[in-house]
Design brief:
Strand order of the largest sheet: 7-6-5-4-3-2-1-8-9-10
Shape: globular
Distance between the termini: 40 Å
Oligomer: single chain
Largest sheet: 10 strands, mixed
Helix content: 25-40%
Structural class: alpha/beta
Strand content: 15-25%
Number of helices: 15
Order of helices and strands: EHEHEHEHHEHEHHEHEEEHHHHHEEH
Length: 387
C-alpha cells in the first residue's frame, strides 16, 4: 500500500513561540539535513510512491532552500503542500510557493484575534495569518485553515467559521490541542474529555454550515470516533463513514529535520516511535521495519482501560496514537471519544484528566496524566453546553 502522506519538518527554526507547539519550535536543529541530503530524500520518497508531501516546521519557509526542495517534490510527480503560521509570509514567499508548484497551504488560525495571539505569543499574529491567506490566494495557491481547539479558542468556533466563509479557503481542519511540547506546559489549556458532549454537537453544526458554504470540513484524527456525527464529517473522506483507524506508519509517515523517521511526525521522538535516520538507512529499508508498521497496527490485546472492552475496539484501536501516548505515556486508551463519553454519561459518569508528571522541555516531549472517573455533578450539563 503506497504512502498517502508524508509530513516533513524541513527545519525547527520558527519566528513564533506558540504555547501549544508540540515540537517546541524556535531554533533550528543543530544537524538538519543539508540541501543535497534533502534532495536525496525527495528521490527516496518518489521511489516509495508517496502521493503527497506536506512541508512544515518550525516555519518551513525560513529555510533558504525550501522552494528548491518543494520544486524537486513536484518534479518527481508528488503533490506538495505546506503548513504555516503565516508570520513573515509576504508576497515574495507566496510567489515562490506558486513557482515551486505547491498546490495547497494550510494557515493556522486558532480562534479569533485575542485567542489566537495569546496562543501564538505575539500580538499581530492573527492579522499576519489573515494577510498570509490573502497573499497566497492572490498568488493562485489554494488555502485551508487549521484550528487548535482548546480553552482559549473553543468559544470562538462559530464566529471563526463565519469569518472563514469569506476567506476563499477550500477546507477547515479543526483538531484538539494535545499536551505535547509546550502544550504540556499549558495543560490548563486542554479541554476535559467530558466536554466533548458539548463540543461535538457544535462541530456537527459547523460541519453542516461549512458544507452549505462550499468549505470542506476535515476534522483532525483526534476528533470523533463512532459517535452519531461521524458520517456527517467523515463519510465523504474516509470512504467508511466513520473513523478508519490510525494510519501512522502504514499510510502516513513523519520525517524530522535531521532525517529521523517515525510513523507520524506528531509522535514523540526516540523510542519507541523513531525507527531510524535517512542519513544511515534508506527509506525502503525503514518502511519494512516491524516497529514502524506496529505504530498503529494494534490489536485488542494492546488496548487498555475503557478502550480494551469497547464494542468498536477492533476497528478503532483507541483512536489517535499521538493523543493517547501524550496523555499516558503509552497508546491504547483515548478518553477524547464521543462514543465513550456518551456511554459513560448513560452510566452517570464522566472522566477528568489530572497532571501527575511534567514534560522534560525538549521537542515532542510530554508529561503524564491520571484519568479519574467520577459521578457527573448535579447540574453539570448546564456547564457542558457552552463548552
Amino acid at each position: 500500500m503506497p504512502l498517502q502522506m508524508v509530513v516533513w519538518e524541513l527545519t525547527l527554526r520558527c519566528n513564533q513561540a506558540c504555547g501549544h507547539c508540540g515540537s517546541r519550535a524556535g531554533r533550528a536543529r543543530s544537524d538538519e539535513l543539508t540541501t543535497p541530503e534533502a534532495l536525496a530524500v525527495v528521490d527516496q520518497l518518489a521511489e516509495a510512491a508517496v502521493e503527497e508531501v506536506a512541508l512544515i516546521g518550525g516555519e518551513a519557509y525560513l529555510r533558504a532552500d525550501w522552494d528548491r526542495i518543494a520544486r524537486a517534490i513536484t518534479a518527481r510527480g508528488m503533490t506538495c503542500s505546506m503548513v504555516t503560521g503565516g508570520r513573515g509570509l509576504d508576497h515574495g514567499v507566496a510567489r515562490r510557493a506558486t513557482r515551486a508548484g505547491i498546490v495547497n497551504v494550510a494557515v493556522s488560525l486558532d480562534g479569533l484575534e485575542a485567542a489566537h495571539d495569546t496562543q501564538r505569543g505575539w500580538p499581530g499574529s492573527w492579522q499576519a495569518a489573515r494577510e498570509a491567506l490573502r497573499r497566497l490566494s492572490a498568488a493562485g495557491v489554494a488555502t485551508c485553515v487549521n484550528t487548535q481547539i482548546n480553552r482559549h479558542s473553543v468559544g470562538d468556533l462559530e464566529a471563526l467559521v463565519t469569518e472563514l466563509r469569506h476567506a476563499r479557503i477550500w477546507a477547515w481542519r479543526p483538531a484538539l490541542t494535545v499536551p505535547m511540547g509546550r502544550a504540556a506546559d499549558h495543560w490548563d489549556w486542554l479541554l476535559q474529555p467530558w466536554e466533548m458532549l458539548g463540543l461535538f454537537p457544535r462541530l456537527a453544526a459547523l460541519a453542516a454550515r461549512c458544507r452549505d458554504w462550499g468549505i470542506v470540513f476535515a476534522p483532525g484524527d483526534n476528533l470523533g470516533y463512532f459517535g452519531p456525527y461521524e458520517a456527517l464529517w467523515r463519510g465523504g473522506r474516509s470512504g467508511h463513514g466513520h473513523w478508519p483507524g490510525c494510519h501512522a506508519g502504514t499510510r502516513a509517515l513523519g520525517i524530522e529535520a535531521d532525517g529521523t523517521v517515525k510513523g507520524c511526525l506528531s509522535l514523540p521522538g526516540g523510542e519507541p516511535y523513531a525507527v531510524g535516520n535517512l542519513r544511515d538507512t534508506p527509506l525502503r529499508d525503514l518502511l519494512m521495519t516491524k516497529r514502524l508498521r506496529d505504530t498503529a497496527v494494534r490489536t485488542e490485546q494492546d488496548l487498555w482501560g475503557f478502550c480494551r472492552g469497547c464494542y468498536y475496539a477492533s476497528e478503532c484501536r483507541a483512536g489517535c496514537t499521538w493523543t493517547g501516548h501524550a496523555l499516558f505515556g503509552r497508546a491504547g486508551n483515548n478518553p477524547y471519544c464521543h462514543h465513550r463519553v456518551l456511554v459513560l454519561g448513560k452510566r452517570g459518569l464522566r472522566e477528568r484528566l489530572e497532571p501527575i508528571a511534567g514534560a522534560r522541555g525538549v521537542p515532542f516531549d510530554h508529561g503524564r496524566f491520571e484519568l479519574i472517573a467520577e459521578p457527573i455533578p448535579e447540574g453539570a450539563m448546564a456547564d457542558v453546553q457552552p463548552c
